[in-house]
Every structure is written in C-alpha cells, then in structure tokens.
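Predict the 3D structure for this chain.
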Amino acid sequence: MKKYKINVNGTVYEVEIEELSGAAAAAAPAAPAAPVSPAAPAEGEVIAAPMPGNILAVNVKAGDAVKKGQVLMILEAMKMENEIMCPRDATVVSVSVSKGAAVETGAALCAIR
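Done. Predicted structure below.
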C-alpha cells in the first residue's frame, strides 16, 4: 500500500492505494459491446433518426398516404422538438417506433414507398 495526501479545494485527504502485480494488473478492460442496430424494414425507403432523442408523437401508421413535407413524427432532442418530415409523396409501409421510444442516430423510424 502506498499513502498519498491529496489537496482538493483547500481540504487535505489522505488516501491509500494498493499496487497490484502479476496477471491482475496486466488484464486489459473488456472491449465495449457493439451497438445494437434496430431491425430495418423489409421494403421501402427508410426514414432514419437524424440525431439521438425520444419520440414525442407518431402521426402516421402503416398504410397511410403522406405528402411531401408532412410531419411523420416529432423527435425531442436536447429539449427541442424536431419535426421528422416526409421527403416525398408516398405511402407508409411500416412504422418502427412508438411514442416514448428512445432512438439513436440513424435508427429506422419508418419506411415509405
């Protein structure tokens, strides 16, 4: 054990640190797990999340006809509401998220055809 004195904002703390030797000290931390990607819709153009956030509202369902510029859903990120709009006239093939879901950047929100 090694003893050290640490000064934090004028308060002195005495700490003891144990030095490990052998295999335990050489062991590297485990690699982080690979991120899980959401299942992609089987067909159609995927509308993906532009940033991580929470889904506040889903305004469409599978089979709905949508127009260019129509708000498909609202994504809350950093206390701001972001409207996810349809890029063209289409039909909604599938909706991959529901209200309250947390999504990551690039997650499939819905698919249009």
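The chain has a mean pLDDT of 84.
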